[in-house]
Structures are given as C-alpha cells and as structure tokens.
Design brief:
With 140 residues, this protein is mainly alpha-helical. It is built from four helices and three strands, in the order H-E-E-E-H-H-H. The protein has one domain: Zincin-like (2-Layer Sandwich). The relative contact order is 0.19. The structure holds zinc ion. Zinc ion binds next to helix 3.
Length: 140
Amino acid sequence: MAKSLEDLQRQCHRVMIAYWRVAQRKFPSLVGVPMPELKFNLRGRAVGRATYRAGNRLHQTTIALKNEYLLSNTVEMFNDTIPHEVSHIIAGVLFRSTGHDGPWRQVMAAFGLKAQRFTYTNFIPDEVKLRVAMKGQKHD
Ligand SMILES: [Zn+2]
C-alpha cells in the first residue's frame, strides 16, 4: 500500500533527526543547537533549500522540501536531499559556511557523502536503513 504524503513527511522528520544525531557525534559543538524546522512548501525547480544565518548558533534554521519530489523520488529525498540540506545548516551554523564551500564539504564527508551538488549516497545512518538510488537533482 502506498504511503500517504503525511506518512512521508513524518519519515522526512525521522531522517533529518537521524542525520542530525550523526552530526552531533561528529561535531560536538552542535550539541545544544536547535534542529532545523522542516517545511514542505518549496516551489520552483529546487527540491530542497536550507535557510540559515551563517555563524549564528541561535538563529532559527529551516529546511524546505518539495512535496512533489518527496512523492516521486522518495529514496533520493531521504538519502540525498535531506543530508545535503542538513549539511548546509550545520556548516552554516558551526563554520559560517555559505554555499557548497569547504565547510559544507567537510560535513558532507562526515556523513560519508561525496561533496558535490548531485550526490551519491554511500553512507546511511542506522536509523534510516534505506537502499540507495542515484539521480542528479537540483539543490540550493
Ligand atoms: Zn546545496
């Protein structure tokens, strides 16, 4: 039976939390930083977008995801888009990163992900346990 959009959105939360926990183990200074708010209101070409203020640990951070992509490319959303955007948040908050720069690549590497806009996932947190598919998609 197909999962509902609401089920998939709840699963996105669990995936984000799983990556956040991995990051907390790799970057202890992340402890105490609030997790991003997850929204599903993204329009346009991008499938995910991270909003943060670089270097501001207390600032509200947001990850916006695209519902249509979640429905059509669920595995890529979980294994690629979400860790990509989580990496933007963490790199921005901890290392004043902007864009796909060195600190962002460092966080991606900590997840075992290739640091490129179109990523191939070769690491999956135990909590997620999904198989991997490869497909290039636009990120912001
Ligand atoms: Zn990006």
